[in-house]
UniProtKB/TrEMBL annotation:
Gene giving rise to this polypeptide: sucC
Organism this protein belongs to: Thermomonas beijingensis
One GO MF term attached to the UniProt entry: succinate-CoA ligase (ADP-forming) activity
Cofactor(s) this protein requires: Mg(2+)
Subunit structure: Heterotetramer of two alpha and two beta subunits.
Similarity comment text for this entry: Belongs to the succinate/malate CoA ligase beta subunit family.
Binding site for substrate: 264, 321-323
Coiled-coil ranges (or none): none
Pathway participation: Carbohydrate metabolism; tricarboxylic acid cycle; succinate from succinyl-CoA (ligase route): step 1/1
Record note on cofactor: Binds 1 Mg(2+) ion per subunit.
Binding site for Mg(2+): 199, 213
Name the UniProt record assigns to this protein: Succinate--CoA ligase [ADP-forming] subunit beta
Binding site for ATP: 46, 53-55, 102, 107
Entry-linked PANTHER family: SUCCINATE--COA LIGASE [GDP-FORMING] SUBUNIT BETA, MITOCHONDRIAL, SUCCINYL-COA SYNTHETASE BETA CHAIN
Amino acid sequence: MNFHEYQAKQLFADYGIAVPTGRVARTPEEAVDAAKTIPGDLWVIKAQIHAGGRGKAGGVKLAKTLDEVREYAKGMLGTRMATYQTAGVELPVDSVLVCEGTDIAKELYLSVLVDRDTKSITFIASAEGGMDIEQVAHEKPEAIKTLHVNYVQGLQPFECRDLGFALGLTAKQVGQLTKIMLGLYRLFNEKDLALVELNPLAILTDGNLAVLDGKINSDDNASFRHADLTAMRDIRQEDETEVRASQYDLNYVTMDGNIGCMVNGAGLAMATMDVIKLEGGAPANFLDVGGGANKERVTEAFKLILSSDKVKAIFVNIFGGIVRCDMIAEGIIAAVKDVGVQIPVIVRLEGTNVEAGKDLLKNSGLAIIPADDINDGAKKAVAAVAGQ
Ligand code: ADP
Ligand code: MG
């Protein structure tokens, strides 16, 4: 689950990490009221969406007067914003963060994540912050510093100091960085996070470090024990179809192709997408209906796939291990009748009771295209789309 910047900063503050004074606002008037409570005469108005890259998209504005605060907040609230990180999707700007404007001397990058190679919580830092860290990693890999935390010892202050000096910080800044890193490490562990990113972690002209941006991603598998985090969920920032899928316990991810896939098992779902690609097609989604697929879930899965008008054919690829193929066939028939599917449906069934399942499909009177195996099914799906 992703968090807004203002929520991330609240969590940082809860863990003793200093953040610039700021308040979230949902109307231009609230933004002005917020600015009045923030000392100084420079404010930053920041669109709250689940994506970075807002600066370049007009979602971060410096205001020098309260009138400018109102004007910028008004310009952002109620609009939709796409950035280079949203893959063409426009996210609703329902709130803005009004915070203290600061004078920046330099921008650093700091993140915490789980490194799967070393199986450790890892800090990644760079003195070249502010811009795309992927670009820095590509063009100047030596500018990226990595610290793998030993999971028995936990993060040690001396490791933070080493990292700080390697980034070229002064002794005072190294002390501030150590406090930030120890706080982040505790936050990361206690809240079961998957990613924390400070970009930028700024060096201000007065020499102090300041956390100017914060991104947090938490591990959904642990959400059952973090009611405080789930209370912060903003489903308006999430893909509508994926939200609906999660309500039915379906693992669904929207993709940009035109062949809808309905598969049981995550491994088979990935293999199906691969084979579609191999045959020259493009999957419209990843969908794992799960081992316990029944009629209701199959129907719901069809509805989800069909909610996108980009989908031109559906490839159902089911291996009946725990589930029975005849039951899946009944589900498919019911769903196709129920939902009124108008596009070609290609079905490959294999496993328990496969003959009974195939007979049901054949005798259903519906225009379902049977496939012998995964390759045959993918070929037929690609051909069905090409023929339209
Ligand atoms: P995004 O990553 O979505 O573009 P950021 O919060 O990183 O958004 O803001 C973009 C840029 O705006 C930062 O790199 C920084 O230069 C500037 N900025 C952000 N917050 C402040 C602030 N409080 N004071 C001054 N400048 C800021
Ligand atoms: Mg940023």
